[in-house]
Amino acid sequence: MGPIEYRYVDIIWLDNLVMNFILLWTTSKLSKECIVLWRLWLASCIGASYAVVMIYYKSSILNCLGLKILLSLAMLIVVFKYTSIAKLLRLMGLFYSVTFAFGGGVFGIYFFTQDILSIENGVFYIKNFPVKVLFFSALLIIIFIYTLVPRIRRIWTTSHLVYPIKIIYNGMDFILDALLDTGNSLYDPMTHSPVVIVEYTKIQELLPNEIRDIFKADKDSNMEYIANTLSDSDFIGRFRLIPYHTVGKPGGLLLGFRPDKVLISVEDKWSEYEDIIVALYNDRLSRDEQYHALIHPEVLST
Question: In this model, does residue 162 exceed pLDDT 90?
Answer without folding.
Answer: no
